[in-house]
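User: Can you help me understand a structure? I only have the sequence.
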Amino acid sequence: MKSILRYPVLDLTYRQTLHIPTGFRIRHLAPGRASDVVIDIWAEVESDNPVVPVDVWIIGTGHQFPPDEAGPIYIGTVVMPDGFVWHLFVSVQ
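Assistant: Let's start by predicting it. Here is the structure, written out as tokens:
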């Protein structure tokens, strides 16, 4: 079944892993709504597809870019209420 699901990012680490069904398409990024969530990612998924590990790279403006060998794909930018700006990239393991 096709649906849009929310994937919360809980920490502003340089790289972390989420588990998302194959064939996903990122649809939106925003500051987290819950107190323990930093960024929310919404993805269009086919929930019957197998789940794969997806690396999420969180890069601050002026910070080190993800290494080329990781093959990260830019998915969007989030402007936080505190004024920080984060650029997100993903790569499927």
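Now, to help you interpret it: The first strand starts at residue 2 and ends at 9. DSSP finds no helices and seven strands in the chain. Let me know which part you'd like to focus on.
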